[in-house]
């Protein structure tokens, strides 16, 4: 009988009720009666009249939705028939019923209930037809199971179903013979879960195993999963046909993989046991060696449960390329059940993968741990029956594993949340896999799952080792030696070869070298482009190339059977990794393979350095925490990008993997409960559809001018997807489906495109506008002005930048660009702003920027100049309008007067505002696009003029972070415990692998035993067995014992105390003379870098002179090699120029230090510049107020910064510059400060030290209380001679001639004049002496020779880097031009020192280097018998014998006493003092002698003319003659004027004062006998106009004699 005739006698109507999303009131009702009559009004009363005379009221989801609203006040007199609940029973097979999607009817119209009734009627008729087509027994079965359920009884009554009460289980057994387990507990199921059983049986009936129970059924009937498992995936003990085949692992192994049996390891059937356990639903941890068939162990159970219960297995793995390989390998076997969703997929592939999971095609899903944070993934997993989570690389859970990943710790949390949401009664089983694991790691993994999910993991571990591998270690002395040995091994071997190296860069270098030598090789590393990676891997797998040079990234899951040789060119960083990597050889058990390590002593050091660079130190996490606190100051929850957090934390954004590092730091903070990282949810919803149906939408979209041709199709797809989910109101998570990221994932369109199309549809009115952008504004008035001022400031700077990018490209540095901008009158320019602007211009595609390691940048325009400027003007206008409009909005709503105002608005709304604004400055406001407005908003948000969130901005700020702990809390050592544990382990693992290499050389069997013990013994016992005594502490350090000894073996106890203090926040060291201050600092820097986890960019050392900075750099290079180049060792001045982003010019340096301190305190400095973990201050006693302010500003800005200040308060001799040791003393007053006195003097002998100690008692306000002690064996000698004569030159020189001991000697004077006279006297006595020169009043930078070199480079340089050939050419030309000049030696020495301390030569660095240097820095005193110097210039130097000339013309204050103290402490063995004062009367010496003789002035004296001694204006107009002279040339002196010897031209004239001085000398009978050029310098008076050229000034030496 046809359906119609069956329905003729049935009186029914279909009803559909539209309910308001927010108010839950009835908006509209549609109904359709059996006689074809329709009803379309919102009145319930009239509906009931329309329904009178019918028996059945039908609808889709009527029972739990429409009926609730229709029959609120009266009982329902009709029988309700629901088409929703019965449909999965009748249409369980793919493709499901065409009208149903999830729990919704598919519709192409909006808000048309009558149309929806038509759809429901069509579905109902199909359901009735399908019911009647079922076999009798099946109908009876379903009816009997569902008879009392309100969701079904209406339908059953309508079709006149027949029930039975008895024999239901027999009925099931007969109907489902061999489809379910014969011994399943059917009676229990029938009684307790009749509905669930019906759904399960419907699914079992399907032929296509990709059919699945819809998600909404699982949501409403969670026990369906349990029922189907009992029927189909629970092997009975008695054995039945179904269980013996479908649940038999061997049977399935053959079906899916074609193998007859499982692999065994040395006879152990591990693989089979693990598969069995998984099929039984147990949780397990399997430790299989590489190539041990791990994948099959989880793939087989996954495929089995895919077929039996249509379940999904989720595989979590960190290796994205590996996932792809596994999916491809299965596909090659014809198994298409596996899918991967990861970050490498393009949107379309990703959408297809998601779809395949949703519609049941996938029974294996591979994802990376971070994907668990995606809402879409969570949503699609909720709708599937997940049968197991498989976790690969499970050692990542343990901080004792060789690779601990904090994001792994989120996995348990996710599974727990998933089970709760799903309402699982039994926990979902978990399988963990790892290739190598020590006991402790195994314990950690098991504990983790016990604690988070209460699971007990059964252990399946192979104890067997591979017997077909032969290991050897070959010792290599040098890199060349290593390469030759590698080549020999390759030449001897005739099989595929893997060469492992530790650095990415080396893979390419080595592959090229081997290929060049005739052994074709390809590189492979994790940083390569994926195409190249895949190509090289395939070439190796297919034997097109026999050698691959790779980092450990290669071989994860690579299964090449015939690799016969594995060579470790660099040893691995742990035994685990070594065993795993070596294990890639000889996968074919019949093949015997060789594994070599080429081992050289510094291999381990490389690992330690690498570890130091990649490690996330506690201070870095503290910096991220501080950044989060700063970002969440106003609101506890923010959206931001990883890059923004990094910059806020003061990290250098050119560091590689910076985003990963930020994520790890956040994961660690989350783990310790400081914050919660929300799912990356864009809060943008495409809701509020205003069109009636798809056709209308299509018409309006096509007619619109806003959509390009490719966008029309996307817009239609989006609106179609939204309309077809029209029953959203009835679904459980309506919001989710209209969320942007979900649409993007499902439709395979990028988020950016979706947002753009949704915005346009809002503009066209196809979607209602939704105010999804929030602006957070401070109170108006002041803050509005600030926003506007900020905008104008950036605009000015941006205009400057855009105007200065030439058509080809601009090569510069941030600093140079900022300096140029400042010099061009943009005095508000800051480096921080330039970075922000360039970041924005790059993101928007206006410019392209490339940056090298030293922050030199190449900027090129991507759009033509005019359109760029036009766009800039437009953006500026929109931005100005936006600020004004938003603040006006606040003012309008500001009645309730709260502090922080939030305004909600939308891009469309803002665009319309601009267009309708009568005062609009836009010539064609109609031409404004949404993009223009979005660009302006992004700009305002990036420059910080407005705080904006939501809307399209989520594309730029993908992270959602909520701070939990308060703003005062600090991230502590205890929180860092787990990561710290991991890094400690890593260090020990490197030592352990090194020990293995050493053992292997000595004793093969002992080495094998060692490896076995490592994996099987308790770790503590293993360490006790192999590392005894001292060695226990050796393996804790990230240095090899040899290196540790070399670095720290020679230091004293006190020096070691400073070096091993890793805790104190502030260490102040008062270091006495000769106590090894520099040495301690250099070793401390080495220790910070190598032993204390301080990254080189986090370390700052400040000195007072360029010479000190250079010396530290040199000494550090000797100690730690190239790593020294990366450390910032700067003078206070150059660091401050850097902070202000200026190229140093010491002539502007007056307030630079205090300016910098001020800017730091006002937050105007780029955090990367001041984000330091350790600040080291040299010569701390020389700090003045400005330097002290700077240090305090840095401390205030870095919560966790450590300060190490070293100085000698007794040697503060620069009070005239404002320095005072009280500032050093103040540092000791910090609460967490430690004060250390270094009083062991290694320089001076006993008598000298005792003498200086006695003398120091005359100095007031000292910090040190302990007297200095000499550590030398000898006594030495001190002699003091008291003179009555005014002049003491003669006796001092005589004593020097008679008493001169061996070694170096130095004469120290108070003034330069005295030093010059003494030098002349010594020369007269034929003593090889040298004066430490000074250019009083002139900078070294002004010296003609130096200027010539700088100019030469400046004229020819085009890039920030000085090319090598230009540098060499400049040297050559300068050296030839000035070859006769005596001052050339200073320039040569300067260039030499710069070359030694700068690996690459940056123009700005060199200029700064010269700027900050003075002549005395380059005075080479080697090979001189006697050095003559003023006390000031001798500070920091030491000599065997010191002669001091101390005349009694000065007031005896502390300052003078300290200067004398500095002088006497320069001496190592002998000290001779000549004085006509009484400073030393009461101090015991080896000899006190009183000399009553009168001495005259020497017969010959030299006067060195300084700039005060010449008439400066005289030089104007004589530049060419002066520049033609050379230092050392003879001059002629006549009547206060100097003439050139060759041309007799006047070149200098003495000043008035000097002329008077000369008269004095002449009165005493002295005459000028000769004159020489000393220096030629550039000069310009302070008050001359800016563009006036400099003059050349000549400084001469005059030789006078009686």
Structural commentary:
By secondary structure, the protein is α/β, with parallel strands linked by helices. Helix content is 45%, strand content 16%. The strands form eleven sheets. It has a seven-stranded parallel β-sheet with strand order 10-11-9-12-13-8-14, sandwiched between helices. Helix 26 runs antiparallel to helix 41 (977-1002), helix 47 packs across helix 48 and helix 49 packs across helix 50. 45% of the residues are buried. The model is unreliable at 1-5 and 726-734 (pLDDT under 50).
Distance N to C terminus? 146 Å
Helical content (DSSP H or I, runs of 4+): 40-55%
Number of strands: 50
Shape: elongated
Q: Unreliable stretches, pLDDT < 50, 5 or more residues?
A: 1-5, 726-734
Describe what is shown at a glance:
The chain is of the alpha/beta class. Helix content is 45%, strand content 16%.
Task: Explain the layout of strands and helices.
Layout: H1 3-8, E1 12-19, E2 26-33, E3 38-41, H2 44-51, E4 56-59, H3 62-70, E5 79-82, H4 83-90, E6 100-101, E7 104-105, H5 113-133, H6 136-146, H7 150-158, H8 168-175, H9 186-192, H10 194-204, H11 215-220, H12 224-232, H13 241-246, H14 249-257, H15 270-279, E8 284-287, H16 294-309, E9 312-316, H17 320-332, E10 338-341, H18 347-358, E11 364-367, H19 375-382, E12 386-391, H20 409-422, E13 430-434, H21 439-453, E14 458-461, E15 469-475, H22 479-492, E16 497-500, H23 504-516, E17 521-524, H24 530-541, E18 547-550, E19 565-568, H25 575-582, E20 593-599, H26 603-614, H27 618-631, E21 637-640, H28 642-648, H29 658-671, E22 675-677, H30 694-703, H31 709-724, H32 734-737, H33 740-747, H34 751-764, E23 773-777, H35 782-803, E24 810-813, H36 814-823, H37 831-843, E25 847-851, E26 856-861, H38 865-892, E27 901-905, H39 907-916, H40 930-943, E28 947-950, E29 959-963, H41 977-1002, H42 1004-1016, H43 1019-1026, H44 1031-1034, H45 1041-1048, H46 1053-1060, E30 1066-1071, H47 1077-1090, E31 1099-1103, H48 1106-1120, E32 1128-1131, ...
Helix pairs in contact: 4-5, 6-8, 6-10, 10-12, 14-16, 15-16, 18-33, 20-21, 26-41, 27-28, 27-29, 28-29, 30-31, 31-34, 35-38, 37-40, 38-40, 41-42, 46-47, 47-48, 48-59, 49-50, 50-52, 54-62, 57-58
């Amino acid at each position: 009988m046809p359906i119609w005739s069956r329905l003729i006698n049935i009186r029914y109507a279909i009803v559909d009720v539209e309910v308001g999303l927010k108010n839950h009131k009835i908006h509209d009702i549609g109904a359709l009666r059996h006689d074809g009559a329709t009803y379309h009004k919102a009145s319930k009363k009239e509906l009931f009249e329309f329904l009178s005379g019918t028996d059945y009221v039908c609808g889709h989801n009527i029972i739990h939705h429409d009926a609730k609203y229709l029959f609120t006040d009266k009982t329902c007199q009709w029988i309700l028939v629901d088409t929703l609940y019965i449909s999965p029973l009748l249409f369980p097979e793919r493709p499901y019923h065409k009208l149903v999607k999830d729990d919704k009817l598919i519709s192409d119209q909006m808000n048309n209930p009558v149309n929806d009734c038509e759809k429901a009627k069509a579905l109902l008729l199909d359901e009735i037809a399908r019911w009647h087509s079922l076999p009798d027994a099946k109908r009876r079965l379903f009816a009997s199971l569902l008879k009392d359920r309100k969701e079904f009884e209406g339908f059953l009554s309508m079709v006149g179903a027949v029930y039975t009460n008895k024999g239901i289980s027999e009925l099931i057994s007969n109907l489902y013979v061999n489809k379910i387990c014969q011994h399943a507990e059917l009676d229990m199921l029938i009684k307790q879960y009749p509905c669930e059983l019906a759904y399960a049986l419907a699914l079992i009936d399907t032929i296509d195993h990709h059919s699945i129970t819809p998600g909404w059924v699982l949501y409403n009937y969670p026990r369906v999963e349990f029922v189907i498992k009992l029927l189909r995936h629970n092997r009975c003990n008695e054995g039945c046909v179904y269980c013996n085949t479908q649940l038999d692992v061997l049977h399935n192994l053959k079906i899916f993989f074609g193998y007859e049996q499982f692999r065994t390891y040395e006879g152990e059937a591990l693989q089979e046991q693990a598969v069995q356990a998984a099929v039984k639903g147990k949780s397990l941890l399997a430790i299989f060696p590489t190539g041990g068939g791990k994948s099959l162990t989880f793939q087989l159970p996954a495929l089995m449960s895919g077929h039996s219960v249509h379940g999904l297995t989720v595989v979590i793995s960190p290796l994205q390329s590996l996932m792809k390989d596994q999916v491809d390998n299965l596909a090659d076997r014809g198994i298409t059940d596996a899918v991967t969703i990861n970050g490498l997929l393009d949107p379309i592939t990703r959408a297809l993968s998601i779809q395949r999971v949703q519609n049941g095609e996938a029974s294996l899903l591979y994802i990376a741990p971070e994907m668990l944070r995606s809402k879409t993934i969570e949503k699609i997993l909720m709708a599937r029956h997940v049968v197991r989570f498989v976790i690969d690389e499970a050692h990542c859970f343990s901080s004792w594993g060789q690779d601990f990943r904090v994001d792994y710790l989120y996995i348990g949390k996710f599974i727990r949340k998933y089970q709760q949401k799903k309402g699982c009664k039994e926990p979902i089983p978990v399988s963990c896999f790892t290739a190598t694991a020590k006991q402790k790691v195994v314990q950690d993994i098991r504990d983790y799952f016990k604690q988070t999910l209460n699971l007990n993991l059964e252990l399946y571990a192979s104890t067997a080792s591979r017997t077909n591998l032969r290991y050897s270690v070959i010792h290599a002395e040098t890199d060349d030696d290593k390469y030759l040995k590698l080549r020999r091994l390759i030449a001897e071997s005739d099989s595929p070869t893997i060469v492992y190296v530790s650095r990415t860069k080396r893979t390419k270098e080595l592959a090229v070298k081997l290929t060049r030598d005739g052994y074709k090789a390809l590189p492979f590393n994790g940083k390569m482009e994926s195409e190249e990676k895949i190509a090289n891997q395939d070439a190796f797998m297919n034997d097109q190339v026999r050698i691959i040079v790779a980092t450990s990234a290669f071989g994860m899951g690579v299964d090449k059977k015939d690799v016969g040789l594995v060579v470790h060119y660099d040893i691995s960083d742990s035994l685990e990794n070594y065993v795993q990597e070596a294990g890639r050889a000889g996968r074919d058990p019949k093949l015997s393979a060789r594994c070599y390590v080429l081992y050289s002593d510094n291999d381990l050091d490389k690992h330690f350095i690498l570890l130091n660079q990649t490690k996330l130190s506690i201070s870095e996490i503290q910096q991220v925490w501080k950044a989060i606190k700063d970002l969440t100051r106003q609101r506890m929850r923010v959206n931001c990008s990883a890059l923004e957090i990094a910059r806020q934390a003061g990290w250098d954004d050119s560091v590689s993997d910076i985003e990963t590092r930020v994520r790890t730091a956040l994961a660690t903070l989350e783990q310790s409960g400081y914050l919660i990282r929300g799912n990356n949810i864009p809060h943008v919803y495409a809701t509020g559809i205003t069109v009636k149906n798809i056709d209308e939408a299509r018409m309006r979209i096509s007619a619109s001018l806003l959509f390009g041709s490719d966008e029309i199709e996307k817009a239609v797809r989006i609106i179609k997807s939204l309309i077809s989910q029209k029953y959203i109101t009835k679904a459980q998570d309506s919001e989710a489906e209209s969320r942007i990221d979900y649409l993007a994932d499902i439709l395979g369109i990028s988020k950016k495109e979706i947002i753009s199309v949704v915005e346009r549809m809002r503009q066209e009115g196809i979607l209602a506008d939704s105010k999804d952008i929030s602006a957070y504004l401070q109170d108006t008035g002041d803050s509005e002005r600030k926003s506007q001022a900020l905008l104008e400031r950036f605009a000015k700077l941006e205009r400057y930048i855009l105007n200065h990018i030439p058509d080809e490209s601009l090569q510069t540095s941030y600093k140079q660009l900022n300096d140029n901008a400042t010099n061009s009158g943009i005095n508000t320019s800051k480096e921080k702003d330039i970075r922000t602007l360039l970041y924005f211009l790059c993101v928007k595609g206006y410019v392209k920027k490339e940056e090298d390691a030293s922050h030199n940048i190449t900027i090129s325009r991507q759009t033509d100049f005019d359109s760029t400027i036009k766009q800039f003007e437009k953006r500026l206008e929109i931005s100005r309008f936006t600020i004004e409009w938003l603040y006006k909005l606040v003012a309008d709503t500001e009645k309730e007067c709260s502090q922080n105002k939030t305004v909600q608005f939308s891009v469309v709304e803002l665009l319309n505002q601009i267009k309708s604004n009568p005062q609009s400055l836009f010539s064609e406001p109609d031409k404004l696009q949404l993009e223009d407005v979005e660009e302006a908003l992004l700009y305002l948000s990036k420059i910080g003029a407005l705080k904006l969130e939501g809307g399209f901005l989520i594309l730029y700020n993908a992270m959602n972070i909520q701070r939990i702990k308060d703003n005062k809390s600090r991230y502590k050592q205890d929180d860092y415990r787990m990561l710290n544990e991991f890094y400690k382990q890593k260090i020990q693992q490197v030592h352990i692998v090194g020990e293995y290499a050493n053992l292997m050389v000595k004793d093969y069997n002992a080495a094998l035993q060692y490896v076995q013990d490592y994996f099987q013994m308790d770790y503590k016992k293993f360490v006790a067995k192999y590392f005894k005594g001292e060695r226990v502490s050796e393996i804790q350090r990230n240095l090899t014992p040899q290196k540790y000894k070399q670095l720290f073996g020679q230091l004293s106890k006190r020096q070691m105390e400073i070096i091993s203090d890793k805790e104190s926040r502030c260490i102040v060291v008062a270091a006495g003379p000769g106590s090894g201050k520099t040495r301690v600092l250099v070793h401390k820097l080495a220790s910070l870098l190598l032993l204390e986890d301080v990254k080189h960019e986090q370390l700052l050392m400040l000195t007072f002179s360029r010479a000190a900075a250079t010396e530290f750099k040199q000494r550090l290079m000797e100690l730690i090699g190239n790593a020294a180049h990366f450390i910032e060792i700067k003078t206070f001045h150059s660091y401050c120029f850097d902070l202000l982003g200026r190229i140093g010019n010491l002539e502007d340096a007056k307030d630079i230090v205090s300016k910098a301190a001020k800017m730091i305190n006002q937050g105007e400095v780029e955090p990367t510049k001041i984000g330091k973990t350790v600040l080291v201050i040299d010569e701390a006693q020389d700090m003045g107020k400005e330097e002290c302010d700077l240090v305090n500003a840095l401390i205030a800005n870095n919560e966790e910064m450590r300060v190490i200040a070293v100085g000698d308060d007794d040697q503060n001799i620069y009070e005239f510059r404002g320095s005072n040791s009280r500032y050093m003393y103040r540092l000791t007053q910090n609460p967490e400060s430690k004060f250390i006195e270094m009083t062991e003097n290694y320089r001076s002998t006993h008598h000298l030290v005792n003498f200086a100690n006695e003398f120091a008692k005359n100095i007031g306000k000292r910090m040190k209380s302990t007297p200095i002690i000499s550590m030398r064996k000898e006594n030495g000698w001190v002699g003091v001679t008291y003179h009555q004569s005014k002049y003491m030159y003669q006796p001092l020189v005589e004593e020097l001639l008679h008493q001169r001991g061996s070694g170096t000697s130095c004469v120290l004077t108070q003034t330069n004049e005295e030093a010059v006279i003494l030098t002349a006297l010594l020369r007269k006595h034929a003593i090889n002496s040298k004066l430490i020169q000074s250019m009083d009043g002139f900078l070294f930078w002004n010296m003609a020779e130096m200027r010539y070199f700088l100019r030469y480079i400046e004229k020819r340089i085009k890039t920030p880097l000085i090319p090598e050939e230009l540098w060499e050419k400049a040297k050559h030309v300068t050296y030839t031009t000035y070859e006769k000049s005596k001052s050339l030696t200073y320039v040569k020495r300067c260039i030499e020192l710069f070359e030694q301390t700068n690996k690459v030569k940056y123009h700005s660095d060199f200029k700064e280097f010269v700027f900050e240097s003075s002549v005395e820095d380059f005075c080479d005193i080697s090979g001189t018998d006697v050095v003559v110097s003023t006390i000031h210039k001798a500070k920091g130097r030491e000599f065997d014998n010191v002669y001091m000339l101390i005349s009694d013309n000065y007031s005896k204050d502390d300052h003078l006493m300290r200067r004398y103290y500095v002088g006497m402490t320069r001496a190592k063995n002998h000290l001779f003092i000549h004085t006509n004062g009484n400073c030393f009367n009461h101090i015991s010496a080896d000899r006190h002698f009183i000399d009553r003789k009168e001495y005259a002035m020497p017969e010959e004296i030299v006067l060195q003319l300084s700039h005060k001694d010449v008439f400066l204006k005289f030089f104007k107009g004589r530049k060419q003659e002066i520049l033609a002279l050379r230092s050392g040339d003879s001059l002629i002196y006549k009547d206060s004027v100097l003439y050139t010897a060759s041309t007799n031209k006047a070149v200098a004239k003495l000043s008035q004062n000097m002329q008077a001085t000369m008269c004095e000398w002449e009165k005493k009978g002295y005459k000028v006998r000769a004159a020489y050029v000393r220096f030629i310098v550039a000069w310009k008076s302070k008050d001359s106009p800016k563009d006036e050229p400099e003059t050349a000034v000549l400084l001469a030496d005059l030789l006078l004699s009686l």
